[in-house]
Amino acid sequence: MQTPDDEIQTYVETTLKNSGSHGLDHTLRVTALCREIGLAEGADMRVLVPAALLHDIARPLEEETGVPHEEEGARIAEEYLESIGYDAALVPAVAHAIRAHRYSTGAAPATLEAKVLSDADKLDAMGAVGLARTFLQAGERGGGIPDAVDHIHEKLLKLKGLMYTKTARKLAEKRHAFLSDFVGALEGEMRRV
User: Fold this and answer.
1) Which residue ranges form the domains of the chain, and what is each CATH number?
2) What is the pTM (predicted TM-score) of this model?
């Protein structure tokens, strides 16, 4: 018998078919990080896991229409969760976490679950996976190594100081150190050209 989380994951898998810097693999890593951080921090997993699974559900729509994926994603999540009979008392908290997860928006996470999702999403932008995603995203946008390096400086190196939870701050330390070492080595090699 499928759990609600399994049902939500199946829905996400059928919706986020394309891979890429914000594909299904990103969503599954963020969900795993949410489980780890959420359990350590005492988050309500009935809110956190659906929010993590659905946090980028509207990313393909944003790429097509320009509508912010966090806003449209929250709307889609509310609609979808209601359609499967998810606990109506939890749906607003799921939608808030999705609305507040994005690094570049002004919406501040007001709940522990929203803070954990924001932290997990930022953690997936750091470390080895974060670097791989950065170069993948630069290529998706027609850019190259210099574009990726600019993104590392503009965003990724700042993420360590933006974590909300103690658990995420600890995880960010190692990822940030790897990121710093890598970008230093890369820039050193690029100066030789």
Assistant:
1) 4-191 (1.10.3210.10)
2) 0.92
